[in-house]
Amino acid sequence: MSVPARRTPFVSQLRSRPGVIRLGAPDEAVFALRVEMPDVWDTVRIDAPPSTPAVDVKRVALDALFPEGQFLEDFVLKLHGFEVMDEQASIAEAGARDGSIFLLTFRRRRPVR
Q1: CA angle at residue 52 from 26 to 102, to 5 degrees?
Q2: Burial of 101 (0-12, 13-18, 19+ CB in 10 A)
Q3: Radius of gyration of the CA atoms of the chain, in A
Q4: Alpha carbons 84 and 95: distance in angstroms, whole number
Q5: What's the CA gap between 69 and 59, in Å, rounded?
Q6: Torsions phi, psi of 72, nearest 5?
Q7: Cβ contacts of residue 91 below 8 Å, gap of 6+?
Q8: Is 33 helix (H, G, I), strand (E, B) or coil?
């Protein structure tokens, strides 16, 4: 079964690391997401089905952007400026849609050196 062609959201055209992190089955419909981590000045693209738990998006983005981050609890995933409080909920339930941009940042401020 082939997946119908879809329009690529604008956020997919913005600068990010090369390649796309793919979650879910190859033939599943996906949201094209962008996850930015301002603390390291980097961005990744993630294609994930709408039913993907937000914590899975957070985990793969953290692995790609900040592999030395040991604990997921030390980081916050935000959408539209607000923390995704229930990370077990799907990204669609959290309010994401095709082309959404998530922000991944430290939960607490870090000292400036």
Answers
A1: 110
A2: middle
A3: 14
A4: 9
A5: 10
A6: -60, -30
A7: 31, 33, 48, 50, 52, 53, 54, 57, 100
A8: strand
- Among all chains, which residue has been given the structure tokens 């030390």? 74
Helix (H, G, I), strand (E, B) or coil at 73: helix
Question: What whole-number distance in Å separates Cα of residue 70 and Cα of residue 43?
Answer: 19
> What tens digit of pLDDT does each residue of 25-84 get?
988 999 999 999 998 899 999 999 999 999 999 999 999 999 887 788 999 999 999 999
SS3 content of the chain, % helix, strand, coil (to 5): 15, 25, 55
Residue listed under structure tokens 């997401």: 33
- Residue 113 neighbours by CB distance under 10 Å: 3
| Distances 24 to 9, 21, 30, 95 between C-alpha atoms, Å | 19, 10, 8, 19
User: What residues contact residue 99 under an 8 Å CB cut-off, 6+ apart?
Assistant: 9, 10, 11, 12, 31, 32, 33, 34
43 forms bridges with which residues in the sheet?
Answer: 36
